[in-house]
Amino acid sequence: MYKKFWFIVPIILIIAVGALVLARGFSGEDDWICVNNQWVKHGNPYLTVPTSGCGATTSIVTTTAPTVELPPESKNFRSLNIAPGQKISSPLEITGEAKGTWFFEASFPVFLVNWDGLIIAQGVAQAKDNWMTEDFVPFEVELKFIKPDYKDNGALIFKKDNPSGLSQNDAAYEMPILFE
């Protein structure tokens, strides 16, 4: 009986160590991130720097300008007072304009997530004008949160309100941010 025990223990340890190594490798903690069209180390990646695929969709903006225009992919939003990669702190006041099609009953949900996608704050963006249009509608929302203890990156997720529940009507815009 003891011979089986000593044979199984090393196998279990090998499997556990292998699972930890794989989990760390796929967590995104040690990876390359595209910033200003250049690959930037995030943690201690075990792979060499990528040679392609770093587009102009992500940028770090440290500006005091009140309004920063977003990349073309975010054509449903404009005049946001926060930019991709900007450092934020609580309470976070977000203002801007979104297409009226994102609203239902004059609102749409906004989420703040940490580096691992865990929701740390959520709020409801409220239209400040007639929302029953396909044009841009001004909105505002305030998010209160506690800065995560681990890592300083996260994302704001603007989610299209979809009362129908149909997947073809779902949409979201995810903006990378940094915690101050």
Written description of the protein model:
This protein has 2 domains: 1-56, no CATH class; 60-179, Sandwich (Immunoglobulin-like), CATH 2.60.40. The N and C termini lie far apart (57 Å). It has 180 residues and is of the alpha+beta class. It is elongated and about 75 Å long. Helices cover 14% and strands 34% of the residues.
SSE inventory with pairings:
Elements: H1 2-26, E1 31-35, E2 38-42, E3 77-78, E4 87-88, E5 92-99, E6 107-113, E7 119-127, E8 136-143, E9 153-159, E10 172-179
Parallel strand pairs: 4-10
Antiparallel strand pairs: 1-2, 3-5, 5-8, 6-7, 6-9, 7-8, 9-10
The geometry reads as: elongated
Radius of gyration: 21 Å
Per the CATH scheme, the topology name of the largest domain is: Immunoglobulin-like
Number of helical stretches of at least 4 residues: 1
CATH architecture of the largest domain: Sandwich
Q: How are helices and strands ordered from N to C?
A: HEEEEEEEEEE
What percent strand?
25-35%
Query: Mind describing the biggest β-sheet?
Result: 8 strands, mixed
CATH uppermost class of the largest domain:
Mainly Beta
Please identify the oligomeric state. Answer: single chain
Low-confidence stretches: 56-66
The tally of strands reads 10
Helix content: 10-25%
Question: Which strand order spans the largest sheet, edge to edge or round the barrel?
Answer: 3-5-8-7-6-9-10-4
Judged by helices, strands and strand pairing, the structural class is alpha+beta
Terminal Cα separation, in Å?
57 Å
- Please, what is the average pLDDT? 78
Taken together, the total number of domains comes to 2
